[in-house]
Design a protein that fits this description.
By secondary structure, the protein is of the alpha/beta class. It contains 31 helices and 14 strands. Strands 1, 2, 3, 5, 6, 9, 10, 11, 12 and 13 form a ten-stranded mixed sheet that branches. Strands 4-14 form a two-stranded parallel ribbon.
């Protein structure tokens, strides 16, 4: 059975198994004590006891101790010697609270006793089967019966199991892929720490009061910039050139003042940054900052220290829920830790220097030449044309033409004298050029040419006057245009208004520093430390999973159960325990690929007993012999009828409901798993090929019941599955698949959900002290999760959901990613083995020939011959009937089928009562005498 069904760690709800046989190396008292100490969720107290049949009375006290903590239900597997003819039991083992299943050791010479007991115990420990067996024992005489069994086991091949497990662990762990944290992908509380924004509730806060040092420096600098801008407005335009409005304006002095005030702002801000430059400012730093003009508010409502760890938890769960492996999540959290780590306001000095450092101040304080008038050749030509136009006035043109050129040159000279880069006192002068000489020369030449042209044309006086007016107006307007453009061009190159932009950026820098380096310092430190702690924890968990995978890796074809058992044996030896360690079943080696029960006989001509036992028999029985015994209630007609009903219609009615979902596995064990002559299990759709193989243990003539169910014979040499697997009893058929399409995803989902539950228990420690080293208990829990998942993979191919851990959970944590049982994939999509054969076995009716009695032919006379006294229990894992095709396959299934919540076994368990004189009940007084 599964190694999880142990007194120390029984499966939730499963019976606690213990071994009281004297052949075991441990003390029976220790086994009972361990069973009583085993946890039983829900208060259910089920005990499955293995004992020798001749020691039931001697162990009365042990059975009474099982009920010492309250009412208990006990099913005893009494293993008797083949020479035994009676069974003695005490009143403690009577129904309804207890019952005895009597089976005989060494019934099959080629099969060890443990190979018979292990799958039987696995079946009986299932709570649904346990309760059904106990109820059935209460209905038979004396509550003692001999079991007759037919079980089908659906499992994975060794290669498929190892491959699925390796891929599942790799899906959980993954590769370490560094990735930067993005503010858009984190919760709002964490996004505030990443985007360097200001919380909305602090938008109206006055960080730099006007009366403070920093606020006053900023105001003085802004005032200096405003004065410079005002002077520029007074200088530019006609008023600045033609009047004395801009004579007293000192733009170079204003710019020097701006540079001086901006340097003062830098010094004040740098002093504040340095005064509170630690990565974790204290309360005293508030007073220091207040003295320097920085007023810090209280913590905003958008973010608190107490909300950081819940935000980290949500972010971590969201990343894991998106399917990212542990190493990738750890890398993202590490990047988040680095980005949120407080570095102190001193680190902002570099940004402050970039905004208003010496280089910026030198550029603002630079001297730029004043240039106006445009290109000189253009000025020469334009002035000459205007002078020519003014000189066409006859006679007067000899004076007026050159005069226009003189006016243009005079205005250019005036612009040069009033250039804005020159202080009124001459202290600061950036130099300049306005093009007066080209205008004068062009005007003289143009005026003379115009006068000559006027003598030739002789225009009327009014035309000359009009031309003069136009020329003078154009000269003045062009001079004003060149002046304004020149002033604006110089202003743009000096760019004192940039100080305003610099002041705005400095103000934002101070506010950002106040929020993130001073106000949020403790929160950022808590977030960085918490993210780093979780990142390290996830990395440790990933390393643990890698080590676990390496430590349990089994080469293809090897037996994982054997490796697990050896590891557990070494652990028990370290604890000083025995082989079973208080009833613990080691899992054995019975889960490997073995032939079906139709190939379990080494001699096809061996006679059959009336209970399906391949030992031969000379005694008739009321339960029939469908295999050629002395009594056959159905005869060949039943086999033919059943084969026609359920066998020949296979392709039409019981075809593979999953089609090619599981791929082509014709190479599985070198045979096709779904039919054909090479199929080790026969065709699941019909009665096989009907060749009447003499080795068929279900009959020697015609089509037997087993043949109709699709069970075909195999050579005796193939009983071990062609490997080192141990033999299986005749009543156990093993079908191994290569893994379904949803197996790996289901395992990864279980591991991820369990990891989230492990993380649920670490957040309190992260909140309390994120810098503390992670407790080893988390790695231990992950190891337990991996062991549990691996054992569920061994037990039922992970068809049953993982059990919830005991203890309170964080109500704010996730509910887990593992789906409910009804939402999990069906067993076929996990194992790759279709459940058709199980459905046909259940539909076979109450034919006792389907089962194999766990007794020898010499014991048949001990059994009751009343055909109505036997009780039959059909059991199937619930996972086998889940899926899209479940309704078609299971249509017509009897209503009394016991649907179990876990396990990989399905089949029929018949309880055959004993004759009344075979069972002896010993009272307590008699037991004490013995």
């Amino acid at each position: 059975m599964s190694p999880r069904v142990l007194p120390e760690r029984p499966l939730p709800g499963h019976a606690v198994c213990l071994d009281l046989r004297t052949a075991t190396a441990h003390d029976p008292d220790d086994a009972v004590r361990a069973a009583l100490d085993a946890q039983r969720p829900g208060g259910e107290r089920r005990f499955l006891v293995l004992d020798t049949a001749d020691r039931l009375v001697a162990h009365q006290r042990l059975y009474e101790r099982l009920s010492s903590y309250g009412p208990a239900r006990v099913v005893c597997l009494a293993v008797g010697d083949r020479n035994g003819r009676t069974v003695r039991r005490t009143l403690t083992l009577r129904p309804p609270a207890a019952g005895v299943l009597w089976l005989f050791d060494g019934v099959e010479d080629e099969v060890p006793g443990d190979a018979v007991l292990r799958p039987l115990v696995d079946v009986l420990a299932t709570p649904e089967v346990f309760d059904a067996v106990l109820r059935a024992l209460g209905e038979v005489v004396h509550g003692v019966a001999v079991p007759a069994v037919r079980v089908l086991e659906h499992d994975l091949t060794d290669e498929a199991r190892e491959r699925a497990w390796r891929q599942a662990v790799e899906g959980l762990v993954g590769q370490e892929v560094p990735s930067g944290a993005s503010a858009e992908r984190v919760p709002g509380a964490l996004a505030l720490l990443l985007d360097e924004g200001v919380p909305r509730s602090l938008a109206g806060h006055q960080w730099l009061p006007p009366g403070g040092r920093t606020g006053a420096a900023l105001a003085a600098c802004e005032e200096a910039v405003a004065d410079a801008v005002d002077g520029h407005q007074r200088v530019r335009g006609a008023a600045g050139l033609l009047t004395r409005a801009g004579v007293d304006v000192d733009l170079p002095g204003d710019i020097e003042r701006v540079v001086r005030e901006l340097g003062r702002v830098r010094a004040v801000v740098a002093d504040a940054f340095g005064a509170a430059g630690g990565s974790r400012p204290t309360v005293e730093h508030r007073a220091v900052l207040r003295d320097r003009g920085v007023e810090l508010p209280e913590m905003p409502r958008e973010i608190t220290r107490a909300g950081i760890v819940p935000a980290l938890r949500d972010h971590t769960h969201e990343l894991i829920g998106r399917g990212l492996p542990l190493r990738s999540v750890a890398a993202r959290l590490s990047a988040l830790s680095a980005r949120t780590a407080p570095v102190g306001s001193t680190a902002r000095l570099a940004r402050l220097d970039a905004l208003c450092g010496p280089e910026r101040l030198r550029r603002l304080d630079g001297r730029y030449a004043f240039t106006a008038g445009g290109p000189r050749p253009t000025a020469f030509v334009v002035t000459g044309l205007l002078a020519l136009l003014a000189g066409v006035w006859p006679v007067l043109g000899w004076v007026l033409g050159p005069a226009v050129g003189a006016v243009a040159a005079g205005l250019a000279r005036l612009a040069l004298r009033r250039r804005p880069n020159r202080s009124p006192d001459g202290r600061t002068d950036g130099g300049g050029s306005t093009g007066a000489a080209p205008r004068l020369l062009g005007g003289l030449l143009g005026g003379l040419a115009g006068a000559a042209l006027g003598l030739f044309l002789g225009p009327p006086p009014w035309a000359g006057a009009l031309a003069l007016a136009v020329s003078l107006t154009a000269v003045v307007l062009l001079a004003l245009r060149d002046w304004t453009r020149g002033v604006d061009d110089w202003w743009a190159r000096a760019d004192p208004e940039e100080a305003w932009r610099v002041l705005g950026e400095v103000r934002n820098l101070v506010v950002t520093t106040a929020v993130h380096d001073w106000l949020f310092a403790e929160v950022r430190h808590h977030c960085s430390a918490g993210a780093g702690a979780v990142s390290r924890l996830l990395g440790d968990l990933a390393d643990t999973a890698d080590r676990h995978r390496s430590g349990t890796a089994v080469p293809p074809g090897a037996d994982f159960r054997a490796a697990t058992r050896n590891r557990e044996d070494r652990s028990r030896e370290d604890r000083g325990g025995g082989e079973w360690d208080g009833g613990e079943w080691d899992g054995g080696e019975w889960g490997e690929s073995l032939p079906p029960p139709s190939a379990r006989s080494s001699d096809a001509s061996r006679p059959r007993d009336p209970y399906g036992n391949p030992r031969g028999d000379t005694y008739g029985g009321p339960y029939g012999n469908a295999h050629g015994g002395s009594y056959d209630p159905h005869g060949d007609s039943f086999g033919d009828t059943f084969g026609d009903t359920f066998g020949d219609r296979g392709d039409d009615h019981y075809g593979d409901p999953y089609g090619d979902t599981f791929g082509n596995r014709d190479d599985l064990h070198g045979r096709s798993p779904y039919g054909g002559r090479d199929n080790p299990y026969g065709s699941p759709y019909g009665a096989g090929d009907g060749d009447g193989d003499d080795r068929d243990p279900y009959g020697s003539s015609g089509r037997s019941t087993a043949g109709a169910l699709g069970f075909s014979a195999r050579d005796p040499e193939d009983r071990h599955g062609g490997s080192s697997a141990p033999p299986a009893p005749a009543w156990l058929e093993r079908r191994h698949g290569d893994g379904g399409p949803l197996l790996v995803d289901t395992l990864v989902g279980d591991l991820v959900a369990g990891t989230l539950l492990i993380l649920d228990r670490c957040w309190a420690g992260v909140e309390r002290d994120p810098g503390a080293p992670a407790s080893p208990v988390h790695e231990q829990r992950l190891t337990e999760l991996l062991d549990d998942t691996r054992l569920r993979l061994e037990r039922d191919v992970a068809a049953s959901p993982p059990s919830r851990p005991d203890g309170p959970r964080d109500p704010g944590g996730p509910t887990g990613l593992t789906t409910a049982p009804v939402d999990r994939p069906d067993a076929a999509r996990l194992s790759g083995v279709a459940p058709d054969a199980v459905a046909r076995l259940l539909l076979a009716g109450d034919d006792p020939g389907l089962t194999v009695a766990l007794c020898g032919p010499e014991h048949l006379r001990l059994l009751s011959h009343d055909p109505l006294a036997a009780r039959q229990i059909r059991f199937v894992p619930e996972a086998m009937r889940r899926g899209a095709a479940g309704d078609d396959i299971w249509r017509g299934t009897p209503e009394d089928v016991v649907w179990t919540g876990a396990g990989r076994h399905a089949g029929i368990l018949r309880l055959v009562p004993l004759r009344a004189d075979v069972v002896h009940t010993v009272r307590a007084e008699e037991a004490e005498d013995q």
